[in-house]
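Subject: design request, 64 residues
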C-alpha cells in the first residue's frame, strides 16, 4: 500500500516554491528554460480557470 502525504494539510505555497526551485536549479540545463516557462504557464492557466469557475458559480443560488 502506498502512503501518500495528506495534501489537505500542506500549504499550497509549498507546491509553487518546490516546482520553481526544481525547474531552475535541479533539472538539466537544457530543460531549465522550458520547464520554468511551463511551470509559470500552468500557474497562469490555473488562475484563469479558477477565476472563470468563480464567475460562473457566483450567479447560482443555493437550493436546499
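Subject: RE: design request

Done. Sequence follows.
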Amino acid at each position: 500500500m502506498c502512503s501518500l502525504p495528506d495534501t489537505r494539510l500542506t500549504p499550497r505555497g509549498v507546491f509553487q516554491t518546490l516546482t520553481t526551485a526544481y525547474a531552475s536549479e535541479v533539472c538539466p540545463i537544457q530543460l531549465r528554460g522550458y520547464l520554468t516557462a511551463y511551470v509559470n504557464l500552468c500557474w497562469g492557466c490555473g488562475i484563469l480557470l479558477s477565476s472563470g469557475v468563480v464567475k460562473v458559480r457566483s450567479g447560482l443560488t443555493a437550493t436546499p
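The first helix runs from residue 12 to 26.
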